[in-house]
Automatic annotation (TrEMBL):
Pfam family, any one: LRR_At5g56370
InterPro entries tied to this protein: FBL13/AtMIF1-like, LRR_FXL15/At3g58940/PEG3-like
Organism field: Arabidopsis thaliana x Arabidopsis arenosa
Domain of life: Eukaryota
Name this polypeptide is given: FBD domain
Residue ranges of domain F-box/LRR-repeat protein 15/At3g58940/PEG3-like LRR in the record: 57-193
Length: 316
């Protein structure tokens, strides 16, 4: 039976006064662990840390067949760490990877992370669009992807092409400057769960239809020059829409023929128009949930103007 060594997340950081000793201690700690599998490793370091030192830590962890790796680099005088791309050229043990903050990602060629199932990218910086593609295309087993980013901070178009992906969460944090307004392309045919938040005043959001989609949550979306968000969600069984029909393209003639549960946030402008369209387009709808109803009584006449009767429950 394979022996396993679990660290419960090893957190290590370096400071000015003890920088060199700390780096040596990290390496020494890693090399002392002789178990064939290192379950979890969490490294926290400053953005000015030498990328060679970070590379040694990662290489040592990979040699211990680490399964979960968290790299958390915090900004120090706006300096960042570039991860050595060669380390990701082949790995068959890593299952969970979290990258946070002051980390630059430059992948001139495709990575190979054969067993990676979960990937978390929190405000990291990609050199170019090829680096995004080479990372995601090199994860054939990827199922969960979480992205928190500024849409215009690095690449103009952030493309997610992942045939195996099942759960996707994207939160755009919005900022001025950078690469214009930025945009997204999502091609994930096996997607079952989608969560989009904060797509405001970006250039585009184009999503290929996912026929296996079970649930989608769309929040704080407005002023997108070119998008097909709602049109791509017609296969969903559950929709949570926190948006105004004035701020997003509402498809006409499209049938949400799998939708059984719909939740709308009612403080959005003209939310009742979105409700009317969704009711007419959802013949199998069973559960309707209206949340944050601040002026429900005065808007009641707008609610049930629908040719499709609701066969289930209305939750308010």
């Amino acid at each position: 039976m394979e022996q396993k060594f679990k660290t419960d997340g090893l957190g290590l950081s370096n400071r000015d006064a003890m920088n060199e000793d700390r780096i040596k201690n990290v390496y020494r700690t890693l090399t002392l662990h002789k178990a064939p599998v290192l379950e979890s490793l969490h490294l926290s370091f400053e953005g000015r840390t030498d990328c060679l030192d970070v590379g040694i830590w990662i290489a040592t962890a990979f040699a211990r067949r680490v399964r979960k790796l968290v790299l958390d680099s915090f900004y120090q005088e706006d300096q960042t760490v570039t991860l050595p791309s060669v380390l990701f050229s082949y790995n068959d043990s890593l299952e969970i990877l979290k990258l946070k903050c002051a980390i630059d990602l430059d992948f001139p060629s495709r990575v190979c992370l054969k067993s990676l199932r979960k990937l978390y990218l929190y405000q990291v910086h990609f050199k170019d669009e090829d680096s995004v593609s080479n990372l995601l295309c090199g994860c054939p087993s990827l199922e969960d992807l979480v992205v928190h980013r500024y849409s215009n901070a690095d690449v103009a178009t952030f493309t997610i092409a992942a045939p195996s992906l099942q759960r996707l969460t994207i939160e755009d944090l919005c900022q001025e400057g950078g690469y214009g307004n930025g945009g997204y392309v999502i091609n994930a045919p096996a997607l079952k769960y989608l969560n989009i938040n904060g797509f405001i005043d970006i250039e585009s959001c184009l999503i290929d239809k996912a026929l296996e989609l079970v649930e989608a949550k769309i929040s704080n979306v407005s002023d997108i020059a070119n998008e097909n968000i709602l049109e791509s969600l017609t296969s969903a069984k559950r929709l949570i829409l926190h948006l105004s029909p004035l701020e997003i393209k509402v498809p006409t003639g499209k049938i949400f023929d799998q939708l059984v549960c719909l939740e709308l946030l009612t403080h959005e402008r003209e939310w009742w128009n979105l409700l009317s369209i969704m009711l007419d387009s959802s013949p199998k709808l069973q559960i309707l949930k209206l949340t944050d109803v601040s002026n429900f009584t005065s808007q009641l006449p707008f609610l049930f103007v629908s040719t499709t009767p609701l066969s289930g429950n209305l939750l308010i």
